[in-house]
């Protein structure tokens, strides 16, 4: 197996089974609430979702927007919105997201509801399923939408196990378990973006690769914030940046050498906790 293959073939082998289960559950919903990470709106999507659920309208939540660059988030919203997908940036941890999500769900199902009303029927409740890659914030989104409403259980034809529905509004139900999508890592940069934002475990990719990727991106797109955060002059590339930061921070080993490992670990931690500011790691083309 080549080195590249090892790097991307990281997920456990139950992807096919998870996909099968999700496909089954998808039959019973009107729409999807796809949770993505606003810092990586492209890399945190799984393009196979379209194949798994063709024709399902989607509410795409760019979650963790509090950690992303607001200007780029607006650009991503414009880029990703279309007739069947409503894109909303949210901070599911701290914001009330039920109202905007419910409104979007009403909008996406308006044709069906009008059709039913024309026939003199009461529109059937909207059923939605939350999906997204690991750590995107699916559970947080479900909790924020569901609030303290009572969960109800129902049997549905074709689904053998009991599916639990959470009542978010009189005519809006959420499936209680989210569908986990695996990120698709064909492009090494996608893997690096996932690693830098903490979507995949740290052991998956070498720390040096993450640091090189992150520092090169920051030096290109956030140079002033980066240099002033660490009080250093413009470095000659990322490795020099690590050395300069080590000296500035006094992270020195015996023998007066910079403790590079310590600097790198500190940098990853600071990047993930927004110490260098709100960063979006990919720019819409
Ligand atoms: N800053 C910030 N953190 C968030 C937000 N939403 C979720 N989180 C955090 O992100 C982490 C993952 O959130 P979860 O809701 O557990 O994500 P998940 O998609 O259910 O994760 P898995 O169940 O592991 O697949 C948690 O530490 C949350 O507190 C947000 O909008 N902003
Ligand atoms: Mg979860």
Could you characterize what this model shows?
The chain is 42% helix and 15% strand. It is built from 12 helices and 8 strands. It is an alpha/beta fold. The protein has 2 domains: 178 residues, P-loop containing nucleotide triphosphate hydrolases (Rossmann fold, 3-Layer(aba) Sandwich); 67 residues, Conserved Hypothetical Protein Ylqf, Chain: A, domain 2 (Orthogonal Bundle), CATH 1.10.1580.10. The chain is elongated. The structure holds guanosine-5'-triphosphate (GTP) and magnesium ion (MG). The site of magnesium ion has 2 residues, from helix 7.
Structure, briefly:
With 285 residues, the chain is an alpha/beta fold. It folds into two domains: 178 residues, P-loop containing nucleotide triphosphate hydrolases (Rossmann fold); 67 residues, Conserved Hypothetical Protein Ylqf, Chain: A, domain 2. Helices cover 42% and strands 15% of the residues.
What descriptors fit this protein?
binds guanosine-5'-triphosphate, 42% helix, elongated, Rossmann fold, Conserved Hypothetical Protein Ylqf, Chain: A, domain 2, disordered N terminus, 2 domains, alpha/beta, binds magnesium ion, 285 residues, 8-stranded mixed beta sheet
Bound molecules: guanosine-5'-triphosphate, magnesium ion
Number of structural domains: 2
Number of strands: 8
| Average predicted local confidence, pLDDT | 89
> Structural class of the secondary structure composition?
alpha/beta
Helix content: 40-55%
Rg (C-alpha, Å): 22 Å
Itemize the secondary structure elements and their pairings:
Blueprint: H1 3-8, H2 15-26, E1 31-37, H3 49-52, E2 58-63, H4 70-80, E3 85-89, H5 98-108, H6 110-118, E4 126-132, H7 138-146, E5 151-154, E6 163-169, E7 172-175, E8 179-180, H8 188-196, H9 207-221, H10 223-230, H11 237-249, H12 260-272
Parallel strand pairs: 1-2, 1-4, 2-3, 4-7, 4-8
Antiparallel strand pairs: 5-6, 6-7
The structure holds guanosine-5'-triphosphate and magnesium ion.
């Amino acid at each position: 197996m080549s080195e590249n293959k090892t790097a991307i073939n990281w997920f456990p082998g139950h992807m096919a089974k998870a996909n099968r289960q999700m496909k089954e559950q998808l039959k019973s919903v009107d729409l999807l609430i796809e949770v993505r990470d606003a810092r990586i709106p492209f890399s945190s999507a799984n393009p196979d979702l379209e194949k798994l659920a063709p024709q399902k309208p989607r509410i795409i939540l760019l979650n963790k927007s509090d950690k992303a660059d607001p200007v780029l988030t607006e650009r991503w919203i414009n880029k990703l919105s279309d007739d069947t997908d409503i894109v909303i940036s949210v901070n599911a941890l701290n914001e009330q997201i039920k109202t905007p999500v419910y409104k979007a769900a009403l909008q996406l199902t308006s044709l069906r509801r009008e059709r039913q009303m024309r026939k003199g029927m009461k529109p059937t409740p909207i059923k939605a399923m939350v999906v997204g890659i690991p750590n995107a914030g699916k559970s947080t989104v479900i909790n924020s939408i569901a609030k303290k409403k009572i969960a109800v259980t129902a049997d549905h034809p074709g689904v053998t196990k009991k599916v639990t529905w959470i009542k978010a509004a009189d005519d809006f139900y959420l499936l209680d378990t989210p569908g986990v999508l695996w990120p698709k890592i064909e492009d090494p940069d996608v893997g690096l973006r996932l690693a830098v934002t903490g979507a995949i475990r740290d052991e998956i990719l070498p720390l040096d690769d993450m640091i090189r990727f992150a520092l090169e991106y920051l030096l290109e797109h956030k140079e002033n914030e980066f240099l002033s955060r660490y009080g250093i002059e413009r470095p000659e590339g990322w490795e020099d940046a690590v050395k300069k930061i080590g000296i500035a921070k006094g992270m020195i080993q015996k023998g007066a050498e910079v403790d590079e490992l310590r600097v790198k670990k500190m940098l990853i931690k600071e990047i993930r906790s927004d110490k260098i500011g709100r960063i979006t790691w990919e720019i819409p083309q």
